[in-house]
Each structure stands twice: as C-alpha cells, then as structure tokens.
Amino acid sequence: MAKDPLSTPTDEQLLAEHLAGRPGRFAQLVRRHSDELFRFLARFTGNAATADDLVQEVFLQIYQSAGSFDLSRRFKPWLFTIAANKARDLLRSRRRRPEMPLDAGISSEVSEGQTFLDFLADESLSPLGAVSLDEQRALVRKVLSEMPERLREVLIMSYYHGFAYKEIAEILNIPLGTVKSRLHSAIAHFGRSFRAASKE
User: Fold this and answer.
1) pLDDT value at position 21?
2) Looking at domain 1-96, does it have CATH number 2.60.40.1220?
3) How high is the pLDDT of residue 195?
4) Any residues with CB less than 8 A from the CB of 110 and at least 6 apart, and which?
5) Long-range contacts of 59-66 (CB under 8 A, 24+ apart)
6) What is the pLDDT of residue 115?
7) Residues whose CB falls within 8 Å of the CB of residue 141, separated by 6 or more in sequence, listed in order
8) Could you say which residues of the chain have pLDDT below 70?
9) What is the DSSP letter of 165?
10) Per-residue pLDDT at 132
11) Which pLDDT belongs to residue 81?
C-alpha cells in the first residue's frame, strides 16, 4: 500500500518536532537533504572530500542553531545559505581557485528552453561518442571551477539545483535583480570560456 504523501511531514514540521524533543526527527532532515547538499558543495568547492566534511559542518550548525530558526520560513533556503557561506569561507581561506576532480560529477538538469549545458544530457549530440562526451564534461568542470565565485554560485544554484530566483536571492542575501543579472553574466561568461577552452 502506497504511503499517503499528505502524511509526509514538511522540513519545517520535522524541525519543530525535533525542537519539541521527538527522537529521530533531525536524522530524517539529514537523510532528506544530505545527498543534494553534498552535490551542491562538491560543485561549489570542486572537491568531494571537502564537500563531505562541509556537509557534516552544515548539519552541526543547523543542529546548534535550530532554536533560533523562524519556523514560519522555509527550511531549505536556510540550509543552503549556511552551506554557501561555509563553502565561501573555506575557499577564501585557501586563497586559491578550487580544483574540479572527476568524482565531483556534473549532470545536466537544465529545463527546456535553456541552452548552454543541454548537450551534456544527450550523448547523441557528440559525433565522437562517449570519449568526446567525457572530454566535454571534464571541460565543463574545468570552466566552471575557474569562473568567479559570485557567478559560479548562482549558476550552480539555478541550473544544477533548480532554485528559483527568489530562493537564490534569499540564500545569497542579494536583491532579486542582482540574481538575474549575475545569472545572465554567468551564462555569458561560461559560453565565452567554454568556446575558448574548446579551441585549446
């Protein structure tokens, strides 16, 4: 018998129940979001091991700060705000650009009508087959890792994780108009860099 989707608690309900002392509720939140959070941080930092460490740090901060969270707000943007801040702080402390290892996989989750990563979803677009597709993916990782942080983060949030503009604005604490202009700049920057790198 299928589980009634209406009986599935929201993130906010799970957090409220955790704060009320109900066992297992925080663990449910961790299970629900850890995979997506890991993918986000792996793309952001360019390193899977670093992302794994940061996931633990993010949930530790969530656990410690849960009592200060306004339960009338949505949990997921708060979670990703903390994650983005931790990733930014780490990258700035290293004072170097991140590397994109092959284990920080990139997939195409671009919605219809949006273009520049579409080719990653369809191997038939590559006349050289799987080898060429692997090369294209490696090139995408390289170009993405070398983008300015402020452009890379909006691109990752929008194209890979499907956050709406308003959610990105909330996570990054920037105006909605800035999100739109940065995403436009990010797409243009990616396109120029990808074309240039393809010719090398």
Assistant:
1) 93
2) no
3) 83
4) 116, 117, 118, 121, 159
5) 59/30, 59/34, 61/86, 62/29, 63/26, 66/15, 66/18, 66/19, 66/26
6) 39
7) 46, 100, 102, 104, 106
8) 1-6, 95-133, 200
9) H
10) 66
11) 94
Cα–Cα distance list, 138 to 4, 104, 134, 200 (Å): 42, 10, 6, 14
CATH domain 108-200 topology: Arc Repressor Mutant, subunit A (1.10.10)
pLDDT digits (tens, 9 = 90+) for 97-124: 444 343 333 333 333 343 344 433 333 4
Q: Alpha carbon of 85 to those of 31, 58, 119, 153: distances in Å?
A: 21, 10, 31, 11
Secondary structure class of 96 (helix, strand, coil): coil
Task: Tell me the chain's radius of gyration from C-alpha atoms.
Answer: 18
Which uninterrupted H or E stretch holds 141?
helix 130-145
Question: In whole angstroms, what is the distance from residue 75 CA to residue 32 CA?
Answer: 12
Name the one residue in this structure whose structure tokens are 């608690």: 9
Give domain limits for the chain: 1-96, 108-200
| 136, 123 Cβ separation under 8 angstroms | no
SS3 of residue 47 by DSSP: coil
Q: What pLDDT score was predicted for residue 112?
A: 39
pLDDT at 160: 82
